[in-house]
Amino acid sequence: MAGGISLKELAAELKLAPSTVSRALNDSYEISEATKKKVISMAEKLNYHANPFARSLRENKSKTIAVIIPERINSFFAQVVDGIEEIAQEQGYHLLIYNTHEDLEREQKIVNLLLNGRADAIAMSVTSQTSDVSHLQKLHDRGLPVIFFDRIRSEIPTTKFITNDYESAFEATKHLIQQGCKNITLLTLGKDLSISKERQRGYNDAIKSEGWELDPSMTLYCSHEEERNVELIEELLLSSNRPDGILASVEKLAFATYLAVKRTKLRIPSDLKLISFSNTSIAGILNPSLTTITQPAMSIGNECANLLIKKLTKPKQYELIDQVITIPSKLTIRESTLVE
Amino acid sequence: MAGGISLKELAAELKLAPSTVSRALNDSYEISEATKKKVISMAEKLNYHANPFARSLRENKSKTIAVIIPERINSFFAQVVDGIEEIAQEQGYHLLIYNTHEDLEREQKIVNLLLNGRADAIAMSVTSQTSDVSHLQKLHDRGLPVIFFDRIRSEIPTTKFITNDYESAFEATKHLIQQGCKNITLLTLGKDLSISKERQRGYNDAIKSEGWELDPSMTLYCSHEEERNVELIEELLLSSNRPDGILASVEKLAFATYLAVKRTKLRIPSDLKLISFSNTSIAGILNPSLTTITQPAMSIGNECANLLIKKLTKPKQYELIDQVITIPSKLTIRESTLVE
DNA sequence: CAATATTTCGAAATCGATTCCGCATTTTCT
DNA sequence: AGAAAATGCGGAATCGATTTCGAAATATTG
């Protein structure tokens, strides 16, 4: 009972029926201006605030969007959420945010929780461990508007927002080649991950476009343990056919690479050139500064929120068509891929 | 209408009264095991999920905690939220998260929205612009459990979690002095901010403890525009009595310093030593690596969530006493403050 | 065996806002 | 002026789950 009066009490105070007060507050045409003014001023005076649960129960909607991300300490996801929140706040929506920590089980639990309708819609990016999608299917079957961003699952027929992963990875690899790399390693995450697959394809095609042979051992699948990744990369750098170029498919693998390089006698970019998908604002102050493929995180967030809210506001008019919408990334060349 | 049956429909299917079904699902002692089993299995079969709004309306609680932070792309706040979420998830609580973007007006709007009880409790860190606290006072007056972390307001009589800002700033300044700095600048944020004041005190006392005179012009108040800060710092570094040591009271000011230094001919740490309050995981891969005061972000988040949930669960037993709980930070010395 | 407990369950009220339906007044039109 | 329409508002049902208050049905006890 966090203080606060109900509509009924407010109505009693005004000697009006609750229905009248409700209509007055909702600016209904059937209430006279005089009454509306009286009601509104009394509501302010008594500090009346409508109970959101009563309203949600009645209207069967909560003005809440759930956002599920695999990690919070990641500039890309943080920016996407900022992008979603920007639109949501404008439109009076609230954000329930969940972090799966790249854990499929947590993802399943969270998704199951959302099955009860606590949120009107969901925007999510799946875990790198997400192989089974039955929990996502259930969500969609329930009729809950769900959209995916970045890490998507094509099995679920809905709208997805991604960046041009294939082209960006292709371009990034090509860039490394142009800068003289002959032996390029791709650092990536789970094999089931949409972005992994696409970025891998881009990398593969870039390699093949040079007439080079594709060496599967040059793709390094990393884990989610920071230290383990550093070890893996260090090992790679100390191996006989160590790479002279690395494409990191996510930011943290680039950071791990910096750490691994520190443990060796190698230097970036003379011994090893590095490029990474990353949205960190400090790419420029790393030393050497990091060449990045910057994803349009904010735009992706904006688009997700816009589409979901349109769908919620005008359900008949907007459909979450089964399509993938691509917003291109931007390559920013910095010192880590310079030819010295 | 996101598919899904109601308790009444479930009851009808079972030829039982809604009350019985409700009790069965809530494992009430007055329901026989046989009935419970029947109910539960039917509930699963029909994919029944309790409507959270009906429940919230009835119970007058939402199992939701609101978290308000001034910025999302900040490793400290991201970690605090992770810390809060960790406990919240365990206890079945949901998180509504709001970003004020350091804007007082937004903070007021959000706080006013929360006045309606959408969340059972609030954990927040105020904006650096927050001078007037009447909106926060209103929250507290309503009886809504509110606690502050990091950036607190002592005017509101509730529990606050911070780190040892004074001691850490003192220690950091002393460290710079020990490393040979004679002219130390403090980079800080809004004058009204609790952490600014405390860190300033720590800095001041460290300077005075050397018998040095305190030069007000050596405290630089920064803004929230990245580029503007870089310009301010660059200007500082080019001035006649440029500092040979900098204590950045927040992470982004350290980053701005790296950028500013890049624009000059100065070098860290030979010309300028730098230490910063920061929780970034990549302090180690900056070049030179950054000496940091790492705040116990995760613990702060954990404590906030624990206390709030205890207060929500056993309101009589736990009070949000007007006190400040301090969890110490940790100094990690890296290259940016090394004597060469 | 009667009387008392105990177990198990149902009917109905409740939380607070919205809305369908209906009833007075008042205004407008022919 | 009488009928039709518009205006302004109240009563009560509704959303879905919980819970109070009882009432059966069964079990226990003297």
From TrEMBL, chains A, B:
PROSITE patterns: HTH_LACI_2 (PS50932). Residues 5-59 form the HTH lacI-type domain. It comes from the Bacteria. SUPFAM superfamilies: lambda repressor-like DNA-binding domains, Periplasmic binding protein-like I. The lineage of its organism: Bacteria, Pseudomonadati, Bacteroidota, Cytophagia, Cytophagales. Gene3D superfamilies: 3.40.50.2300, lambda repressor-like DNA-binding domains. Keywords: DNA-binding, Transcription, Transcription regulation. GO terms for molecular function: DNA-binding transcription factor activity; transcription cis-regulatory region binding. This is LacI family transcriptional regulator. Transmembrane segments: none annotated.
